[in-house]
């Protein structure tokens, strides 16, 4: 994928393999964060090196989109963004840059000095061509170059200690979804949660944007992306990006480095490109390939177009989503987080013969510096199962460099009872429209029970009613709520079904572990018929909604403070596992595993 970003987009991408164990025990995740924290931040800061500026019409001053920026001696061009802005990553040196745009006379600026640190600012003002006048040569000017006012201040003072993440456990998809929605809800001024589409198994491909102006490309501000969990069984990157989201959000406004980074950079974090594969992988797996590929059994890292070798495998939904993403946003720098070894890879992956060997890109020196910036900031020792790494730099026969990490240019991986919905097991495509109104009715019911009025459901709530939850997903979802909102939730089991599945009961209250006999209780029960699961999905959405809005929405806060809300989302989990989506009239799954209709089985 790194070659695709470099060849077909403006984005320089490297691949980071962060741990020898692909799926280490959860107890090691805190150490992984400590090992990689500084490197993750430093790499984002590298988006500001080189030369940046605008290409404008000399007459109107308007920015020129898709103008070509070329560097003498480097056979790799980039193009300007919609405002005429560009960021060209370069190592320190003196460069000659040329800007070319259709309908304008080309302009070359010579002797632009690039220094260590923030990018040199260089603007191009192109003269429109007149039909009768065709310039014979490129207009050329010389400039010593002007270094921009630094956007990134020196490192934080030793007296300041940034807030560190506290959430160190493996996040299955429902838990990850709750985590992302929680931080998007708690930090709306600097975050935007969006999806690139869906995986083969219809899981959302989430991205968290972190910026001081989320949702907007600001002229002159570079865009950076991290992608994690492309191989489903390589999970450290997934967890590190969730840690990074927490770290950036909690430290914005108090930590100078984080604050400046968020103000000067538009950051996009994709924790999992392969959520389906992740759900198949197993904790503690060091070397196997279970969960590596997507649900269609394709390696997503080998599914992108290659400049040398045609790709014959069908392009996967996850691949299509990321390719569209790369084309839609003007990314300057990117990193793809893998696991299974300690390696930094960068273009190219192969040569014209399709051989995985040392194959220099035109920007080989830039990629080396970017890769070294990550490796030099990695912690040298760890208790995560890998050995301390060398400081010295040695050049091996294949052109690799060893410095903290092994830097290689080419690699192969080692690697209240209600009947909801018109049909019983309706399609998830139909789950949003009717359930949204029913969800509002649930909230209004709760409000009326407690004498509360004036509630309005915001359209920005973005209820996750896009797919049905299997028993495993439902269990993970409920555990995720408790992990993220322990102060207002308590999860217990009422017992087990005939097939030994837990019948979960979630209590939501301001004092969930303290008995308050004087406080009224209200109970919601769904899923008594396994083939009628819409009620189950509504109650999961209700639980999440109450958690997300506690202490934010006054009506929800009063509900939770005054009431003990008990939610039993699935009374018949065995039947639910047998029911089939879109089977609106089928009786399969209506009864429990012993053929009992639970609705008529009470005495």
TrEMBL record:
Residues 1-47, 169-426, 467-603 form the Peptidase M14 domain. CDD domains: Peptidase_M14NE-CP-C_like. Transmembrane segments: none annotated. InterPro entries: CarboxyPept-like_regulatory (IPR008969), CARBOXYPEPT_ZN_1 (IPR057246), CARBOXYPEPT_ZN_2 (IPR057247), Peptidase_M14 (IPR000834), Peptidase_M14_domain (IPR050753). One of its GO terms (biological process) is protein processing. Keywords: Carboxypeptidase, Glycoprotein, Hydrolase, Metal-binding, Metalloprotease, Protease, Zinc. Pfam families: CarboxypepD_reg, Peptidase_M14. GO terms for cellular component: extracellular space. It comes from the Eukaryota. PROSITE patterns: CARBOXYPEPT_ZN_1 (PS00132), CARBOXYPEPT_ZN_2 (PS00133), PEPTIDASE_M14 (PS52035). The active site is at residue 17. Residues 576-585, 594-603 have a biased composition (Basic and acidic residues). Residues 411-434, 576-603 are annotated as: Disordered. Its cofactor is Zn(2+). GO terms for molecular function: metallocarboxypeptidase activity; zinc ion binding. The keyword Zinc applies. Belongs to the peptidase M14 family. This is Peptidase M14 domain-containing protein. It comes from Neotoma lepida.
């Amino acid at each position: 994928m790194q070659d695709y970003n470099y060849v077909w987009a403006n984005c320089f991408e490297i691949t980071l393999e962060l741990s020898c164990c692909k799926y280490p025990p959860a107890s090691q995740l805190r150490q992984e964060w400590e090992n990689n924290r500084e490197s993750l931040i430093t790499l984002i800061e590298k988006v500001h090196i080189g030369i940046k500026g605008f290409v404008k019409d000399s007459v109107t001053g308007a920015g020129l989109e898709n103008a070509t920026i070329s560097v003498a001696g480097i056979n790799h061009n980039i193009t300007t963004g919609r405002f005429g802005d560009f960021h060209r990553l370069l190592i320190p040196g003196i460069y000659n840059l040329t800007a070319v745009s259709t309908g304008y006379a080309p302009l070359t600026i010579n002797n632009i000095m690039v220094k260590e640190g923030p990018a040199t600012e260089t603007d191009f003002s192109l003269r429109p061509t007149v039909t009768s006048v065709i310039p014979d040569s490129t207009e050329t000017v010389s400039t010593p170059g002007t270094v921009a006012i630094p956007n990134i201040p020196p490192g934080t003072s030793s007296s300041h200690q940034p807030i560190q993440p506290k959430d160190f456990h493996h996040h299955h998809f429902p838990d990850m979804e709750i985590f992302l929605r929680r931080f998007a809800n708690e930090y709306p001024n600097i975050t935007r949660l969006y999806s690139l589409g869906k995986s083969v198994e219809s899981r959302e491909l989430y991205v968290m944007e972190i910026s001081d102006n989320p949702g907007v490309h600001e002229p002159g501000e570079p865009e950076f992306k991290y992608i994690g969990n492309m191989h489903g069984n390589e999970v450290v990157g997934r967890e590190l990006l969730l840690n990074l989201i927490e770290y950036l959000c909690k430290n914005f406004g108090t930590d100078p480095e984080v604050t400046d980074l968020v103000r000067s950079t538009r950051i996009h974090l994709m924790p999992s490109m392969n959520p389906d594969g992740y759900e198949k992988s197993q904790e503690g797996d060091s070397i196997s390939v279970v969960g590596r590929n997507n649900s269609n059994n394709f390696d997503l890292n080998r599914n992108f177009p290659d400049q040398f070798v045609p790709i014959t495998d069908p392009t996967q939904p996850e691949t299509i989503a990321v390719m569209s993403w790369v084309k839609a946003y003007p990314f300057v720098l990117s990193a793809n987080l893998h696991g299974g070894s300690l390696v930094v890879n960068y273009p190219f992956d192969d040569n014209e013969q399709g051989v995985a060997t040392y194959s220099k890109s035109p920007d080989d020196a830039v990629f080396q510096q970017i890769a070294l910036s990550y490796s030099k900031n990695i912690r040298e020792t760890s208790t995560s199962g890998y050995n301390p790494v060398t400081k010295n730099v040695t050049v091996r026969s294949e052109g690799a460099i060893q410095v903290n990490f092994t830097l290689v240019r080419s690699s192969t991986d080692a690697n209240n009872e209600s009947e909801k919905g018109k049909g019983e097991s309706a399609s998830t495509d139909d789950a949003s429209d009717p359930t949204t109104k029913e969800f509002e009715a649930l909230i209004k019911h709760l409000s009326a029970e407690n004498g509360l009025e004036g509630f309005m459901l915001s359209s920005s709530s973005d209820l996750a009613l896009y797919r049905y939850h299997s028993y495993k997903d439902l269990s993970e979802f409920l555990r995720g709520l408790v992990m993220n909102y322990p102060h207002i939730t308590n999860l217990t089991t009422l017992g087990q079904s005939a097939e030994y599945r837990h019948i979960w009961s979630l209590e939501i209250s301001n004092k969930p572990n303290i008995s308050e006999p004087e406080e009224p209780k209200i109970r919601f029960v769904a899923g008594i018929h396994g083939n009628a699961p819409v009620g189950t999905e509504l109650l999961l959405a209700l639980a999440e909604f109450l958690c997300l809005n506690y202490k934010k929405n006054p009506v929800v806060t009063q509900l939770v403070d005054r009431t003990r809300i008990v939610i039993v989302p699935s009374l018949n989990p065995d039947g639910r596992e047998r029911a089939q989506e879109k089977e609106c009239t089928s009786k399969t799954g209506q009864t429990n595993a012993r053929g009992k209709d639970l609705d008529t089985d009470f005495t």
